[in-house]
Design brief:
With 173 residues, this protein is mainly α. The chain has nine helices and two strands. A two-stranded antiparallel sheet has the order 1-2.
Length: 173
């Protein structure tokens, strides 16, 4: 048997009752959830109507259910501006901001690996080409998220990790 060039993590050091990926997909993996979360994350002040228009085939009832589920899970909140109460919108919560790296990673994977469906010319691109002014904003939170979580276990490597860029966080709403 030959050694694989693909790195694999070592087994977890603590027992798990459930797979964290499967658990997360139980929440974020419901139909329409990620496109709705994407619209709230990437488009400031995304309204019900805006989200519905951006997602052909999304039924009003389904959108209402998903928005309620995302709010009950603490990922988004409904904002009713006092100066314009007839135009509520949705915004990410602090917990929802932690989903930003997931969305940005899926976005980057899509523009590289599914370019034939994503772009008319079918040519793969990277974030810098798609978001020349905001590439750092798009993936910065992934780096920041990975680097700034409080350590639970001591690090096993001696390599130092540079500080995350303070401008890499998505704007708070």
């Amino acid at each position: 048997m030959r050694a694989s060039a693909t790195p694999y993590p070592s087994p977890p050091l603590v027992p798990m009752e459930a797979c964290p990926i499967a658990t997360t997909l139980g929440s974020l993996g419901r139909k329409w959830t990620l496109p709705i979360l994407r619209d709230v994350a990437f488009f400031p002040k995304a309204s019900f109507g805006f989200i519905r228009k951006r997602n052909p085939g999304l039924l009003q009832r389904t959108l209402s259910l998903r928005l309620r589920q995302l709010a009950s899970e603490g990922l988004i909140r409904r904002v009713v501006p006092p100066e314009d109460p007839r135009h509520p919108f949705y915004a990410l919560t602090d917990k929802g901001l932690e989903a930003w790296p997931i969305l940005a990673s899926l976005f980057e994977f899509g523009i590289r690996q599914h370019a034939r469906k994503v772009f008319a010319d079918g040519r793969p691109r990277d974030l810098l080409e798609v978001y020349p002014k905001d590439a750092e904003l798009m993936l910065g939170p992934l780096t920041e998220f990975a680097r700034t979580l409080p350590p639970i276990l001591p690090t096993t490597t001696s390599a130092s990790v540079p500080d995350a860029s303070p401008t890499g966080r998505p704007p708070r709403r």
